[in-house]
Amino acid sequence: MHPYRSHKCHELRSTNAGSTAKLSGWIFRKRDHGGILFIDLRDHYGLTQIVVHPTRSFFEELTHAKLETVITVTGEVTPREESTINKDLPTGDVELVANECIVECASEQTPIYLPGDEDCAEEVRLKYRYLDLRRETLHNNILLRSKIISFLRRSMEEQGFNEYQTPILTCSSPEGARDYLVPSRVHHGQFYALPQAPQLFKQLLMVSGFDRYFQIAPCFRDEDARADRSPGEFYQLDIEMSFVTQDEIFDVVENVCTNTFKKFSTKTVDDAPWIRIPFKESMLKYGNDKPDLRIPIEIFDCSELFLNSGFNAFAGAVKKGAVVRAIPVKGISSKSRSFFDKLGSFAQSLGSKGLAYLVWNGEEIKGPIKKFLTDEELAALAAAGNVEAGDVIFFVCDKPNAAAKIAGEIRTKLGKDLELINQDVFNFCWIVDFPMFELDEETGAPAFSHNPFSMPQGGMDALLNKDPLDILAFQYDAVCNGVELSSGAIRNHLPEIMYKAFEIAGYGPEVVEEKFSSLLNAFKFGAPPHGGIAPGVDRMVMLIAGEDNIREVIAFPMNQKAQDLMMNAPAEVSERQLRELHIKIRGKEIEDK
Predict the structure, then answer these.
(1) What does the pLDDT read at residue 590?
(2) Which helix (H) or strand (E) segment is 33 a member of?
(3) Which of 24, 214, 244, 334 could share a disulfide with 4, CB 3.0–4.6 Å?
(4) Strands 20-33 and 36-42
(5) Whole-angstrom Cα distance, residue 355 to residue 70?
(6) What is the average per-residue pLDDT within 236-249?
(7) Phi and psi dihedrals of 391, rounded to 5?
(8) Residues 260, 155: contact at Cβ < 8 Å?
(9) Is 573 helix (H, G, I), strand (E, B) or coil?
């Protein structure tokens, strides 16, 4: 017999009764019933109940053994009595009556109580992550992650993609988030950087003649943590294709993501094709470019209606360039005054001067601003918001970007507070037609809105003849339930368009040649039209697992301060290591200057 096990802890059934079996695992629970010791033995696969009689020589040792002690038990598989069968456990029909036991590794008292569901401080969970990972929910999340990644690989290969690896040590990027820098021992004073994404390399693979690339790619960005963003590193399903249209990229992503979510979740999943929402429309209707379509609220603009109204606070602001956004909500006219006051306070916390509203209470209309509006204006608002008796419209007035943000946050809060969000669906959409340029708030000059390497819609003709602020890019985001899964674009592959686009954004040809020489030079030797995208693996797993925090689907995450409490990273290094790298740590008084 194998030295550690003949079966795993999920395998024994009533058909094994009467046979000898050997199991190894951790002591998960212990119970002493009338002098007989019952142990729930746990391994990666499941649980089996072990029965230890007091006549056994190892009875006392196991009685005093701490939970999470690792043991190997040999014994007879015995059917349970009818009254003790555990129907919730796959092995619940049987138990293993121990004849032999070896303590493989004794455990000390654990700082985390694993059998219970009690909340534990995140600091403790991260410091003892190897214990936290033994808990069923987290353990299953990491297993789910492994299965999803395996499925993603198979799905990409079935669509004709090949996986290629790109460098981890590369050059620092002048665009995007902060880099993690790695000093060179050989080249004094020079640094590598960990890649924020394999962006340049995957485009260079297209220039190299490869056609369909993918990679489960690690990415490194020195960013602050959020619930859906882990500091330090994350993984993405990196994709790039040659001689491709935007629609073809959409087809690939819709196929992979829809099938993945359907396979690993019991929720209803949107079928392909996903709806496409232009960026401008998304900012108006939902107040952001990652809308949660589960919320049945659509914002609308009513600036023109207020422009000549008697409500001077709004009318005056609109004349100075502000806009008025209306947020219609069904069936909440009976809410208390405190509900409206709290929502107004929330709006103020976002930077709004207040939150106006109108209540359609039967045939009567109430609200702080009702007296400033004519019957015709009220009727126009009701028509625009498809208002019926019992409905309410909230109003936000501010500069366009601020009004969109505030209205969007209020829409999201209303969706959550009023329990309007259907928790049993995954709603996908594409956000398309992003602007290529936007006005820099400091300089008032055009600047790149997002990705400077996207192909402008209309190509060179658009760059030469259109107002920069009217130029749209072949750029798109995939969104699921209000979470941005990925950004992508049809790339600009023409040197002359790259020069012109950067010129509009205020960069001369020397900047392009210095900062992006590898890509620019490659394009000069014949580059295919190409495009790609990179869905976030961590976020996909987080959504499928039903977790609110991305750390619950990462085996060894950092905390919100980008610290690894288990490995004590980051940490100081020796003076010898610093000398080898020709690095000297500056004093704090210098850093503060």
Answers:
(1) 45
(2) strand 20-33
(3) 24
(4) antiparallel
(5) 60
(6) 98
(7) -90, 165
(8) yes
(9) coil
**pLDDT of 147-175, one tens digit each?**
999 999 999 999 999 999 999 999 987 66
Strands 181-183, 232-242: pairing kind: unpaired
Cα-to-chain-centroid distance, residue 33: 47
Burial 81-97 (b: 16+ CB within 10 A, else e): eeeeeeeeebbbbbbbb
Work out the average pLDDT over 348-364.
93
What pLDDT sits at residue 588?
Answer: 53
Give the model confidence (pLDDT) of 39-58 as tens digits: 999 999 999 999 999 999 99
Residues contacting residue 10 through CB under 8 Å, at least 6 positions apart: 43, 45, 46, 47, 48, 90, 91
Strands 94-105 and 47-52, by their bridges, are parallel
Q: How far apart are CA 226 and CA 36, in angstroms?
A: 49
Q: Name the strand (E) or helix (H) holding 463.
A: helix 459-465
Peptide bond into 174 cis (omega under 30): no
**Two structure tokens written together for 541:** 């797993």
CA nearest 470: which of 478, 458, 455?
A: 458
At 515, the pLDDT band (50, 70, 90 cuts) reads: confident
Can you list the alpha helix ranges (DSSP code H) found in 159-278? 199-207, 246-264
What tens digit of pLDDT does each residue of 206-232 get? 999 999 999 999 999 998 887 788 888
46, 63, 54: which is closest to 9 by C-alpha?
46
Burial class (CB in 10 A: 0-12, 13-18, 19+), 489: buried
Average pLDDT for residues 13-33, to the nearest whole number?
Answer: 96
Distant-in-sequence, close-in-space partners of 285: CB < 8 Å, separation ≥ 6: 277, 291, 298, 299, 300
Angle, in degrees to the nearest 10, between helices 537-545 and 136-158:
130
Structure tokens at 249: 């990229």
Q: Tell which residue, 531, 451, 519, has the closest CA to residue 171.
A: 519
What residue has token string 């009217």? Answer: 470
Alpha-carbon torsion, ordered 57, 63, 69, 70, to 10 deg: 30
Q: What is the dihedral of CA 316, 318, 322, 323, to 10 degrees?
A: 140
pTM tops 0.70, yes or no: yes
Over residues 437-455, the pLDDT tens digits come to: 999 878 889 999 988 999 9
Q: Of 116, 29, 32, 107, give the one whose Cα is nearest residue 65.
A: 107
Least confidently predicted of 3-7, 293-297, 457-461, 559-563: 559-563
Per-residue model confidence (pLDDT) at position 175: 60
The dihedral built from the CA positions of residue 256, 258, 262 and 266, taken in this order, carries a sign that is positive
CA 115 from chain centre, in angstroms, equals 29
Question: Tell me, what's the pLDDT at 174?
Answer: 65
Helices assigned H by DSSP within 265-336? 279-285, 303-307, 312-319
Instruction: Identify the burial level of 123 via C-beta atoms within 10 angstroms of its C-beta, where 0-12 means exposed, 13-18 middle and 19 or more buried.
Output: exposed
- Residue 451 has a pLDDT of 85
Q: How many CB atoms lie within 10 A of CB 350?
A: 17
